[in-house]
TrEMBL record:
Protein name: Thiolase C-terminal domain-containing protein
Residues of the signal peptide: none
GO MF annotations in UniProt: acyltransferase activity, transferring groups other than amino-acyl groups
InterPro entries: Thiolase, Thiolase-like, Thiolase_C_2
PANTHER family on file: ACETYL-COA C-ACETYLTRANSFERASE, ACETYL-COA C-ACYLTRANSFERASE
Record-annotated Thiolase C-terminal domain positions: 262-338
The organism's place on the tree of life at top rank: Archaea
GO process terms (BP): isoprenoid biosynthetic process
Keyword annotations: Isoprene biosynthesis
Organism whose genome encodes this protein: Caldiarchaeum subterraneum
Length: 366
Protein backbone atom coordinates (compact mmCIF):
# COMPACT_ATOMS: atom_id res chain seq x y z
CA UNK A 1 0.00 0.00 0.00
CA UNK A 2 1.24 3.50 -0.88
CA UNK A 3 2.82 5.33 2.04
CA UNK A 4 2.33 9.10 2.32
CA UNK A 5 5.13 11.36 3.53
CA UNK A 6 5.43 15.03 4.37
CA UNK A 7 8.26 16.01 2.03
CA UNK A 8 8.41 19.66 3.03
CA UNK A 9 6.66 22.45 4.90
CA UNK A 10 6.71 26.21 4.49
CA UNK A 11 5.08 29.11 6.26
CA UNK A 12 5.38 32.79 6.96
CA UNK A 13 5.18 33.98 10.58
CA UNK A 14 1.82 34.88 12.06
CA UNK A 15 1.27 38.64 12.32
CA UNK A 16 -1.71 40.80 13.25
CA UNK A 17 -1.47 42.26 9.75
CA UNK A 18 0.65 41.91 6.61
CA UNK A 19 0.88 44.81 4.14
CA UNK A 20 1.30 42.35 1.25
CA UNK A 21 -1.50 40.82 -0.77
CA UNK A 22 -2.44 37.26 0.20
CA UNK A 23 -0.97 36.04 -3.09
CA UNK A 24 2.44 37.30 -2.08
CA UNK A 25 2.06 35.72 1.36
CA UNK A 26 1.22 32.37 -0.22
CA UNK A 27 4.11 32.62 -2.69
CA UNK A 28 6.62 33.18 0.14
CA UNK A 29 5.29 30.17 2.05
CA UNK A 30 5.49 28.12 -1.16
CA UNK A 31 9.13 29.10 -1.75
CA UNK A 32 9.98 28.07 1.81
CA UNK A 33 8.26 24.72 1.26
CA UNK A 34 10.14 24.06 -1.99
CA UNK A 35 13.47 24.84 -0.33
CA UNK A 36 12.58 22.54 2.54
CA UNK A 37 11.60 19.65 0.27
CA UNK A 38 14.40 19.99 -2.27
CA UNK A 39 12.10 19.16 -5.19
CA UNK A 40 11.59 21.22 -8.33
CA UNK A 41 8.34 23.02 -9.08
CA UNK A 42 7.94 20.89 -12.23
CA UNK A 43 7.55 17.78 -10.04
CA UNK A 44 4.32 19.01 -8.42
CA UNK A 45 1.39 17.00 -9.74
CA UNK A 46 -1.58 18.59 -7.98
CA UNK A 47 -2.65 21.38 -5.63
CA UNK A 48 -5.31 21.14 -2.94
CA UNK A 49 -6.22 24.61 -1.72
CA UNK A 50 -8.04 25.41 1.50
CA UNK A 51 -10.29 28.43 1.39
CA UNK A 52 -13.60 29.76 2.61
CA UNK A 53 -15.40 32.27 0.39
CA UNK A 54 -17.29 33.47 3.47
CA UNK A 55 -14.06 34.86 4.95
CA UNK A 56 -12.44 35.95 1.68
CA UNK A 57 -15.35 38.01 0.40
CA UNK A 58 -14.94 36.56 -3.10
CA UNK A 59 -16.24 33.44 -4.79
CA UNK A 60 -14.13 30.47 -5.91
CA UNK A 61 -11.12 31.56 -3.86
CA UNK A 62 -8.88 28.81 -5.23
CA UNK A 63 -8.92 30.47 -8.66
CA UNK A 64 -6.24 32.78 -7.20
CA UNK A 65 -4.06 29.95 -5.91
CA UNK A 66 -2.39 28.02 -8.81
CA UNK A 67 -0.08 30.73 -10.19
CA UNK A 68 1.57 31.35 -6.81
CA UNK A 69 2.31 27.70 -6.01
CA UNK A 70 3.34 26.06 -9.27
CA UNK A 71 -0.11 24.65 -10.01
CA UNK A 72 -0.81 26.26 -13.37
CA UNK A 73 -2.33 23.76 -15.85
CA UNK A 74 -2.16 21.00 -13.21
CA UNK A 75 -4.87 19.32 -11.17
CA UNK A 76 -6.40 21.86 -8.75
CA UNK A 77 -9.22 21.60 -6.27
CA UNK A 78 -10.63 23.60 -3.35
CA UNK A 79 -11.62 22.12 0.02
CA UNK A 80 -13.61 24.35 2.34
CA UNK A 81 -13.84 24.27 6.14
CA UNK A 82 -10.62 23.80 8.08
CA UNK A 83 -7.40 23.21 6.13
CA UNK A 84 -6.68 19.91 7.90
CA UNK A 85 -9.56 18.61 5.80
CA UNK A 86 -7.64 19.77 2.70
CA UNK A 87 -4.56 17.95 4.02
CA UNK A 88 -6.59 14.74 4.24
CA UNK A 89 -7.83 15.23 0.68
CA UNK A 90 -4.23 15.56 -0.50
CA UNK A 91 -3.36 12.40 1.43
CA UNK A 92 -6.18 10.51 -0.29
CA UNK A 93 -5.11 11.74 -3.74
CA UNK A 94 -1.68 10.20 -3.23
CA UNK A 95 -3.27 7.01 -1.93
CA UNK A 96 -5.02 6.60 -5.29
CA UNK A 97 -1.63 6.09 -6.93
CA UNK A 98 -2.37 8.70 -9.59
CA UNK A 99 -0.32 11.45 -7.98
CA UNK A 100 3.22 11.45 -6.60
CA UNK A 101 3.57 14.99 -5.18
CA UNK A 102 0.56 16.95 -3.93
CA UNK A 103 0.77 20.46 -2.53
CA UNK A 104 -1.68 21.59 0.18
CA UNK A 105 -2.06 25.34 0.71
CA UNK A 106 -3.84 27.58 3.18
CA UNK A 107 -3.79 31.26 4.08
CA UNK A 108 -5.69 33.80 6.14
CA UNK A 109 -5.90 37.55 5.66
CA UNK A 110 -8.00 38.26 8.73
CA UNK A 111 -6.80 41.86 8.83
CA UNK A 112 -8.96 42.52 5.76
CA UNK A 113 -12.13 41.53 7.65
CA UNK A 114 -13.92 44.47 9.25
CA UNK A 115 -16.91 42.61 10.65
CA UNK A 116 -15.63 39.17 11.68
CA UNK A 117 -18.16 38.77 14.51
CA UNK A 118 -21.08 39.43 12.17
CA UNK A 119 -19.72 36.91 9.67
CA UNK A 120 -19.59 34.20 12.34
CA UNK A 121 -23.11 35.05 13.53
CA UNK A 122 -24.34 34.61 9.96
CA UNK A 123 -23.53 30.89 10.13
CA UNK A 124 -26.42 30.42 12.58
CA UNK A 125 -30.14 30.19 11.96
CA UNK A 126 -31.38 33.72 11.06
CA UNK A 127 -34.73 33.42 12.87
CA UNK A 128 -34.23 31.27 15.96
CA UNK A 129 -30.59 31.82 17.00
CA UNK A 130 -28.94 34.85 15.41
CA UNK A 131 -31.22 37.48 17.00
CA UNK A 132 -30.54 35.99 20.49
CA UNK A 133 -26.74 36.09 20.31
CA UNK A 134 -25.30 39.38 21.50
CA UNK A 135 -21.83 38.32 20.37
CA UNK A 136 -20.41 35.23 18.65
CA UNK A 137 -18.31 34.54 21.78
CA UNK A 138 -21.50 33.74 23.67
CA UNK A 139 -21.90 30.40 21.90
CA UNK A 140 -18.36 29.38 22.81
CA UNK A 141 -19.01 30.52 26.38
CA UNK A 142 -22.05 28.24 26.60
CA UNK A 143 -19.89 25.35 25.40
CA UNK A 144 -17.16 26.20 27.91
CA UNK A 145 -19.56 26.45 30.83
CA UNK A 146 -21.30 23.21 29.89
CA UNK A 147 -17.94 21.41 29.69
CA UNK A 148 -16.74 22.75 33.04
CA UNK A 149 -20.05 21.84 34.70
CA UNK A 150 -20.04 18.33 33.26
CA UNK A 151 -16.42 17.67 34.21
CA UNK A 152 -16.56 19.57 37.52
CA UNK A 153 -13.98 22.02 36.32
CA UNK A 154 -13.35 25.64 37.20
CA UNK A 155 -12.89 28.73 34.99
CA UNK A 156 -9.32 28.87 36.30
CA UNK A 157 -8.60 25.69 34.32
CA UNK A 158 -9.06 27.73 31.14
CA UNK A 159 -6.48 30.22 32.40
CA UNK A 160 -3.99 27.40 32.96
CA UNK A 161 -4.40 26.37 29.31
CA UNK A 162 -4.08 29.93 28.01
CA UNK A 163 -1.00 30.69 30.13
CA UNK A 164 0.67 27.47 28.97
CA UNK A 165 0.11 28.19 25.28
CA UNK A 166 1.16 31.85 25.45
CA UNK A 167 4.39 30.90 27.23
CA UNK A 168 5.06 28.02 24.80
CA UNK A 169 4.74 30.45 21.88
CA UNK A 170 7.82 32.31 23.11
CA UNK A 171 9.90 29.42 21.69
CA UNK A 172 8.22 29.68 18.28
CA UNK A 173 9.58 32.22 15.80
CA UNK A 174 6.35 31.97 13.78
CA UNK A 175 4.14 33.01 16.72
CA UNK A 176 2.60 36.48 16.99
CA UNK A 177 1.41 36.52 20.60
CA UNK A 178 3.95 34.70 22.75
CA UNK A 179 4.62 36.38 26.11
CA UNK A 180 5.93 35.73 29.59
CA UNK A 181 2.59 35.57 31.35
CA UNK A 182 1.12 33.59 34.22
CA UNK A 183 -2.22 32.30 35.43
CA UNK A 184 -2.85 35.20 37.80
CA UNK A 185 -2.38 37.78 35.04
CA UNK A 186 -4.88 35.96 32.87
CA UNK A 187 -7.31 35.61 35.77
CA UNK A 188 -7.28 39.40 36.08
CA UNK A 189 -8.44 39.84 32.47
CA UNK A 190 -11.95 41.02 31.79
CA UNK A 191 -14.64 38.54 30.78
CA UNK A 192 -15.69 38.62 27.13
CA UNK A 193 -18.51 36.18 27.85
CA UNK A 194 -18.36 34.32 31.14
CA UNK A 195 -16.48 32.03 31.78
CA UNK A 196 -14.26 33.14 28.87
CA UNK A 197 -11.75 35.87 29.62
CA UNK A 198 -9.93 37.95 27.03
CA UNK A 199 -6.80 35.75 27.03
CA UNK A 200 -8.91 32.58 26.72
CA UNK A 201 -9.73 33.68 23.15
CA UNK A 202 -7.19 33.29 20.33
CA UNK A 203 -6.55 36.56 18.52
CA UNK A 204 -6.84 36.62 14.74
CA UNK A 205 -3.75 36.78 12.54
CA UNK A 206 -2.59 36.89 8.94
CA UNK A 207 -0.77 33.71 7.94
CA UNK A 208 0.08 31.38 5.06
CA UNK A 209 1.42 27.83 4.97
CA UNK A 210 2.15 25.17 2.36
CA UNK A 211 2.74 21.44 2.89
CA UNK A 212 4.07 19.06 0.26
CA UNK A 213 2.83 15.47 0.46
CA UNK A 214 4.66 12.77 -1.48
CA UNK A 215 4.75 9.03 -2.08
CA UNK A 216 8.56 9.27 -2.32
CA UNK A 217 10.37 8.83 1.00
CA UNK A 218 13.70 10.28 -0.15
CA UNK A 219 12.94 13.73 1.26
CA UNK A 220 10.52 12.63 4.00
CA UNK A 221 10.32 14.93 7.00
CA UNK A 222 7.44 13.00 8.57
CA UNK A 223 5.20 10.01 7.83
CA UNK A 224 1.41 10.26 7.77
CA UNK A 225 0.31 7.28 9.88
CA UNK A 226 -3.44 7.86 9.79
CA UNK A 227 -6.24 10.34 9.15
CA UNK A 228 -9.81 10.72 10.36
CA UNK A 229 -12.69 13.18 10.17
CA UNK A 230 -16.26 13.33 11.40
CA UNK A 231 -19.23 15.55 12.13
CA UNK A 232 -20.88 15.67 15.54
CA UNK A 233 -24.03 17.29 16.87
CA UNK A 234 -23.83 20.64 15.07
CA UNK A 235 -26.97 22.22 13.64
CA UNK A 236 -27.55 25.85 12.70
CA UNK A 237 -30.70 26.07 14.84
CA UNK A 238 -29.15 24.20 17.83
CA UNK A 239 -31.86 21.54 17.73
CA UNK A 240 -29.23 18.76 17.71
CA UNK A 241 -26.38 20.49 19.51
CA UNK A 242 -24.88 18.94 22.64
CA UNK A 243 -23.12 21.69 24.55
CA UNK A 244 -19.78 21.11 26.25
CA UNK A 245 -18.87 18.03 24.22
CA UNK A 246 -17.27 17.38 20.83
CA UNK A 247 -19.03 14.31 19.48
CA UNK A 248 -16.83 14.29 16.35
CA UNK A 249 -13.56 13.49 18.13
CA UNK A 250 -14.03 9.82 19.02
CA UNK A 251 -15.12 8.59 15.58
CA UNK A 252 -12.37 10.66 13.94
CA UNK A 253 -9.61 9.38 16.23
CA UNK A 254 -10.82 5.79 15.84
CA UNK A 255 -10.29 6.16 12.07
CA UNK A 256 -6.87 7.75 12.42
CA UNK A 257 -5.45 5.81 15.35
CA UNK A 258 -6.48 2.39 16.70
CA UNK A 259 -6.73 2.35 20.49
CA UNK A 260 -3.90 -0.20 20.64
CA UNK A 261 -1.53 2.31 19.01
CA UNK A 262 -2.35 5.45 21.00
CA UNK A 263 0.82 5.28 23.06
CA UNK A 264 2.77 6.35 19.96
CA UNK A 265 1.37 9.87 20.48
CA UNK A 266 4.03 11.79 22.39
CA UNK A 267 2.54 15.26 21.93
CA UNK A 268 -0.65 16.79 20.57
CA UNK A 269 -1.24 19.90 18.47
CA UNK A 270 -4.82 21.23 18.62
CA UNK A 271 -6.26 24.27 16.86
CA UNK A 272 -8.00 26.01 19.73
CA UNK A 273 -9.94 29.23 19.00
CA UNK A 274 -10.74 29.15 22.73
CA UNK A 275 -8.94 27.61 25.71
CA UNK A 276 -12.03 25.47 26.31
CA UNK A 277 -11.69 24.00 22.79
CA UNK A 278 -8.36 22.41 23.69
CA UNK A 279 -9.81 20.80 26.81
CA UNK A 280 -12.94 19.57 25.03
CA UNK A 281 -10.91 17.91 22.26
CA UNK A 282 -8.41 16.39 24.68
CA UNK A 283 -11.21 15.04 26.87
CA UNK A 284 -12.46 12.89 23.97
CA UNK A 285 -9.16 11.85 22.34
CA UNK A 286 -8.27 9.00 24.67
CA UNK A 287 -4.51 9.58 24.37
CA UNK A 288 -4.07 10.69 28.00
CA UNK A 289 -4.33 8.10 30.77
CA UNK A 290 -6.11 9.97 33.53
CA UNK A 291 -8.49 12.80 34.26
CA UNK A 292 -7.88 15.66 31.82
CA UNK A 293 -8.54 18.44 34.32
CA UNK A 294 -6.25 16.86 36.89
CA UNK A 295 -3.63 16.63 34.17
CA UNK A 296 -4.02 20.33 33.37
CA UNK A 297 -3.64 21.31 37.01
CA UNK A 298 -0.74 18.92 37.56
CA UNK A 299 1.32 20.25 34.65
CA UNK A 300 1.17 17.07 32.54
CA UNK A 301 0.42 19.09 29.39
CA UNK A 302 3.29 21.56 29.72
CA UNK A 303 6.17 21.58 27.22
CA UNK A 304 8.17 19.28 29.53
CA UNK A 305 5.13 17.36 30.80
CA UNK A 306 4.04 13.76 30.34
CA UNK A 307 1.97 14.64 27.25
CA UNK A 308 2.71 18.14 25.88
CA UNK A 309 -0.32 19.82 24.37
CA UNK A 310 0.35 22.61 21.88
CA UNK A 311 4.08 22.91 22.56
CA UNK A 312 4.12 25.31 19.58
CA UNK A 313 1.84 27.73 21.43
CA UNK A 314 -1.37 26.73 19.67
CA UNK A 315 -3.67 29.34 18.18
CA UNK A 316 -3.81 31.26 21.46
CA UNK A 317 -0.05 31.76 21.42
CA UNK A 318 0.55 31.92 17.67
CA UNK A 319 -2.62 33.57 16.41
CA UNK A 320 -5.82 32.13 14.95
CA UNK A 321 -5.67 32.05 11.12
CA UNK A 322 -9.30 31.04 10.59
CA UNK A 323 -9.58 28.04 8.24
CA UNK A 324 -5.77 27.88 7.89
CA UNK A 325 -5.49 26.76 11.54
CA UNK A 326 -5.34 23.04 10.75
CA UNK A 327 -2.43 23.35 8.32
CA UNK A 328 -0.76 25.73 10.77
CA UNK A 329 -0.83 22.92 13.33
CA UNK A 330 0.59 20.39 10.82
CA UNK A 331 3.54 22.67 10.05
CA UNK A 332 4.26 23.15 13.75
CA UNK A 333 3.99 19.40 14.39
CA UNK A 334 6.50 18.60 11.63
CA UNK A 335 8.89 21.26 12.92
CA UNK A 336 8.66 19.82 16.44
CA UNK A 337 9.19 16.23 15.24
CA UNK A 338 12.33 17.34 13.44
CA UNK A 339 13.80 18.56 16.73
CA UNK A 340 14.35 14.89 17.61
CA UNK A 341 12.72 15.21 21.01
CA UNK A 342 9.55 13.30 20.05
CA UNK A 343 8.79 10.48 17.60
CA UNK A 344 5.04 10.68 17.12
CA UNK A 345 2.20 13.18 17.43
CA UNK A 346 -1.48 13.77 16.81
CA UNK A 347 -2.89 16.87 15.13
CA UNK A 348 -6.54 17.79 15.69
CA UNK A 349 -8.47 20.71 14.26
CA UNK A 350 -12.07 21.84 14.53
CA UNK A 351 -14.00 23.06 11.49
CA UNK A 352 -14.63 26.49 13.02
CA UNK A 353 -14.99 28.37 16.26
CA UNK A 354 -17.99 26.50 17.63
CA UNK A 355 -18.67 23.79 15.04
CA UNK A 356 -18.96 20.20 16.26
CA UNK A 357 -16.89 18.69 13.47
CA UNK A 358 -13.23 18.33 12.65
CA UNK A 359 -10.26 16.31 11.47
CA UNK A 360 -7.37 14.35 12.96
CA UNK A 361 -3.99 13.41 11.49
CA UNK A 362 -1.34 11.20 13.10
CA UNK A 363 2.31 11.82 12.18
CA UNK A 364 5.57 10.11 13.04
CA UNK A 365 9.12 11.32 12.51
CA UNK A 366 10.47 10.70 9.01
Amino acid sequence: MTEVYVAGVGEIPCKPSYPQDFREMLFKAFKNCLEDSGIDVSEIDAVVASGLDFFEGVSITDSYTPDQVGGRLKFNTLVTNDSLNAFIHGYMLIKTGWFKNVLVTAYAKASNILNYGEIVLNTWDPHLIRPLLIHHFSMAALDAQAFLSRRRGEPRDLSIVAAKNIRNAQRNSAAAYGADTDIEKIESDEFVSEPLRRSHVARLCDYASVVLLSSDNRSAKAVVKGVGFAHGSHSSDLSERVFGKFAWVRPAVSQALPSSSRRVVEFVEVSEPFASTELMVLDELGVYDGDVLKGVRGGDFMFDGALPINPSGGCIGMGYPLNAAGLQRVVQAVKLLRMGRWRGCLVASVDGEVVDGGSIVVLSAG
